[in-house]
Design a protein that fits this description.
It is a single chain. Helix content is about 30%, strand content about 20%. It is of the alpha/beta class. It has two domains: about 150 residues, Rossmann fold, CATH 3.40.50; about 100 residues, Hypothetical Protein, Haloacid Dehalogenase-like Hydrolase, Chain: A, domain 2. Strand 2, helix 3 and strand 3 form a beta-alpha-beta unit. Helix 2 packs parallel to helix 10. It is globular, with a radius of gyration of 18 Å. The mean pLDDT is about 95. InterPro entries: Cof (IPR000150), HAD-like_sf (IPR036412), HAD-SF_hydro_IIB (IPR006379), HAD_sf (IPR023214). GO terms for molecular function: magnesium ion binding; phosphatase activity. This is HAD family hydrolase. Keywords: Hydrolase.
Length: about 260
Amino acid sequence: MLESRKLLAFDIDGTILDSNKRPLASTIEALQTLRDAGHFVTLATGRSRYLAETVIRELDFENYILCNGSAAFLNHQQVFKETLASDSLQQLIEFCQELKIDTSLIHLDSSKRLSSFDMEKMEEAMTSFGSHASELGYLNEKDDVYQALAYYDQSFDAMFDGQYPGLNFVRWHEKCVDVVPENGSKARTILAMADRLEISREDIIGFGDGLNDREMLREVGIGVAMGNALEIVKQDADLVTKDNNSDGIWHALQELKLI
């Protein structure tokens, strides 16, 4: 067993969960072994709290980073909050409406779509992690927006990237991007959580498979890419393990001598 306490951050979809959207028995055992050894474990997901709620409850997570780093909780208490800049968000929504690009707003415990231009595209993106397109709603300036979704493919990327102050665009699906606060990312929030826990960067281990995990894998002490990750994601990792259907988390932790 390694001597120092670690902070281990796990993505949900394609990492903690297998292709059937369930955690493997080996993953459940690995998480408990880490806790028993005194290490800190946290989720680090693009999901909001209401979409991560089942995983949080079933796997006994007390710590979780949500909405790609826009919110973080330690012992179920919120310790970090970064919401979208309202002026830039309004401009983005208006531009998307002109282009007939659908958008959705993500709150901590709810979400809503602002249009219905292409329901099939929205459903395709959302069902990829076991969800569905949100109910139709509208932007209310009183509501905190932690993240937004814009449903467009890579041919539109140059029209958005770097064009809206305070907003970053992170692709996670071929037909959808996350819109996140400029100062919010999985990587930054994991580092902030580690600082709060007095854990050094080299003692942070991140597990992920998606495009929105790339910065995290680069910035933590050890970045672990799942075997099912895209090749470009694997290139950012220090270690590539087996896939999410083949005890990938367990095997990586064994290789790191943590279990």
